[in-house]
Amino acid sequence: MEILTFGNDLLRQKAEPVTDIKDKPLQWDDIIQKMFNTLQKGNGVGLAGPQTGLMQRIFVTDVEGDMPRVFINPSIVETSQETTKYEEGCLSIPGVWADVVRPKTVKVQAWNEKGRPFTLEASGLLARVILHEYDHLEGVLFIDRLSELKQKRMLDKIAKLAEKAAKAKV
Q1: What is the pLDDT of residues 146-163, one digit of tens each?
Q2: pLDDT tens-digit series, residues 41-81
Q3: How far is CA 157 from the centre of its chain?
């Protein structure tokens, strides 16, 4: 799968619910495997459907210390009021990192790759990855969580990186 990068309009759109996980299990098995392969190739810890052009409410995570997970039609049930700041990056915005404040813990309900519902309470890096990937399903990027000044700096940096990449292709 190809990872869409900043500037692609699909990254700003809300994803649609998955409705056929049980009807087409082999198709979804293939999609999920491709998502994990793409995640691994990009050295990431999470990947959402919209990042690959799949406009469906699905994301995968592979966080060290936790098993690889599939979240289909997730909903955030609860987040802690306590927050934490951590440097985030994104496979769709390569080369850009920024400190993002997010809730310290999250409770999420979703369906797994077999179409079975589950509830998960997560903290630490897994909570952050879940919240980051969930944002992708809503058309939100991590840079949207920054102050206006930091957003402007990030957008300038993204533009410079894009200009540098364009010159390198010539």
Answers
A1: 999 999 999 998 888 888
A2: 999 999 999 999 999 999 999 999 999 999 999 999 999 99
A3: 21
Q: What is the pLDDT of residue 98?
A: 95
Structure tokens at 86: 């951590």
Write out the two tokens for 168.
Answer: 């390198």
The answer to whether the CB of 18 falls within 8 A of the CB of 73 is: yes
- 9-169 placed in CATH 1.10.4100.10: no
Please state the domain extents for the chain: 9-169
Residues 140-164 as b or e (16 or more Cβ within 10 Å = b): ebbbebbeeeeeeebeebbeeeeee
How many CA atoms are closer than 13 Å to the CA of 53, on its beta-carbon side?
A: 7
Which residues are tagged catalytic?
Answer: 133
Whether 24 has a pLDDT exceeding 80, the answer reads: no
Distance (Å, whole) CA 162 – CA 164: 5
Q: Is 166 exposed, middle or buried (0-12, 13-18, 19+ CB in 10 A)?
A: exposed
